[in-house]
Amino acid sequence: MKEIISFMFETFLTLKMLLVLFLCILTILTIVVPAMLVLLRLKYCIYKAKANPKKLKVAFFHPYCNALGGGEKVLWVAIQTLQKRYPTAEISVFTGDVEATPSEILQRVASNLNVKVDPKVKIVYLHKRSGLEAARYPILTLLGQALGSICLAFEALGQLNPDIFIDTTGFSFTLLVFKVIAGCKTASYVHYPTITTDMIEKVSSRRSMYNNRSYIAKSPFLTYGKLVYYRMFAAAYSFAGQFCDLTMVNSTFTMEHLTVLWNKPMHLIYPPCDVSHLVKLPKDEAKKANIRILSLSQFRPEKDHPLQLQALYELRELIPDQLFANVTLVMCGGCRNEDDKKLVKDLVDLSKHLSLENNVEFKVNISYQDLLKELEYAQIGIHTMIDEHFGISVVEQLAAGLMTVAHRSGGPLLDIIETSEGSRLGFLAVTPLEYAHTLKTILEMEEVAIMGIRERARASVDRFSTKKFEAEILRAVEPLFQY
Ligand SMILES: *[C@@H]1O[C@H](CO)[C@@H](O)[C@H](O)[C@H]1NC(C)=O
Ligand SMILES: *[C@@H]1O[C@H](CO)[C@@H](O)[C@H](O)[C@H]1NC(C)=O
Ligand SMILES: *[C@@H]1O[C@H](CO)[C@@H](O)[C@H](O)[C@H]1NC(C)=O
Ligand SMILES: *[C@@H]1O[C@H](CO)[C@@H](O)[C@H](O)[C@H]1NC(C)=O
């Protein structure tokens, strides 16, 4: 009896402890955290009220603004456009490139990206960028980077509290900070969703691709843990997305995946992609005896060059030998390292194995001048990568007036190549045989039909021009600039 009573007493004690703990957590969640948020918000809003209210402040969040890739082109062209349209606004960029001076950055932007930004743009340096590096988080990388970006957002906010905050790198958790605490209007240009439902599906089907560690894919328990983690992260990402006043995406692929998670309207604005010089390349209208099929992509496994050789192999069965003797597949592309060189060697071997060595040319590390010549001489373009997110090389081939056959997936399918009769811009295929039949169709096409497609395709690439990007971005941000 005594034991039972003492047991009950102890249970009661533990229960009481649990209750106290529960109440503590509840207090923190319902009182302390909101109170801190309110205080922080008051602090930053008072700061903002004190600042010159006439001058509209716009800040871009782009920690790696000096990297000069496609993402940076979007950033700097957007800045240039806003500078022209809103000359009195004060535009800043938050960046972690502390080793470069503002004039160095602008100089590189002018010389490498060919974008001339007004030097009155302010560069605001951030020192905690290392928190964004994936390598710092051997496990829970997504979460680590998200928290790192929140810390960085606080560092940024400590230096400048803008009226409009625009994230151009996809660190969407920064929006939360700038919306909730700093009271800014927020916008985001998303190149790629941080997490997609595809990723979650891949984990749940236990393929060891995203799960880079195969032991996770092998253990049902760890897989389940990872799945819960991904689901929770996806929920947090959707939550952060709700603090975005204006969402812009770079492609249909990104739009489709992000819409599932954020569930809000988005503007599809293609990145600026300058192909106007290709549209002007002369194109000999008369059919040439030599038929050149141009392949234009880096020598990398995912580009699937072997498929091009297989297609050529199938084509030989479909057309007369004399005609096939005049067909040349020209593979142009860059090589970055030893692996890529090995890939080229394997391709050469494969072409010999298929007895195609007289019908294939390799142009490794071709110069831009020579590439322009190839684009001019070729009649047909070929692209074989599956699920390419966009495919700039496909746009270049269309612009240069080639009859283009691209893989029926990803960007070429969703964004670039229209194939319905009457508005056809190019062709899509999947299997070697389908590629071969398509090539045969093109070889047999009437001159007028070819010219029709060429004209339409060359006109269509205007969708991806810098001018179009500028117009679209101004239209999208307009509501944010209205006070
Ligand atoms: C959008 O961004 C992703 C990631 O950087 C890139 O792979 C894709 O090519 C981009 N799309 C366009 C239309 O440039
Ligand atoms: C898996 O790991 C390898 C080597 O560590 C890396 O090269 C590859 O990019 C990783 N793949 C993914 C999907 O993260
Ligand atoms: C192949 O090219 C040669 C000239 O290079 C030309 O004389 C011949 O007619 C071409 N053959 C076919 C079938 O087009
Ligand atoms: C191509 O250029 C890369 C670097 O620019 C270099 O490493 C590689 O060796 C070159 N490949 C060939 C085949 O010249």
UniProtKB/TrEMBL annotation:
Catalysed reaction equations from the record: an alpha-D-Man-(1->3)-[alpha-D-Man-(1->6)]-beta-D-Man-(1->4)-beta-D-GlcNAc-(1->4)-alpha-D-GlcNAc-diphospho-di-trans,poly-cis-dolichol + 2 GDP-alpha-D-mannose = an alpha-D-Man-(1->2)-alpha-D-Man-(1->2)-alpha-D-Man-(1->3)-[alpha-D-Man-(1->6)]-beta-D-Man-(1->4)-beta-D-GlcNAc-(1->4)-alpha-D-GlcNAc-diphospho-di-trans,poly-cis-dolichol + 2 GDP + 2 H(+)
Domain ALG11 mannosyltransferase N-terminal: 57-262
E.C. designation(s): 2.4.1.131
Membrane-related topology note: Single-pass membrane protein
UniProtKB keywords: Endoplasmic reticulum, Glycosyltransferase, Membrane, Transferase, Transmembrane, Transmembrane helix
Bilayer-spanning residue ranges: 17-40
The UniProt record lists the keyword Heme: no
Family per record: Belongs to the glycosyltransferase group 1 family. Glycosyltransferase 4 subfamily.
UniProt protein name: GDP-Man:Man(3)GlcNAc(2)-PP-Dol alpha-1,2-mannosyltransferase
Organism from which the protein derives: Nicrophorus vespilloides (Boreal carrion beetle)
Lineage per the UniProt record: Eukaryota, Metazoa, Ecdysozoa, Arthropoda, Hexapoda
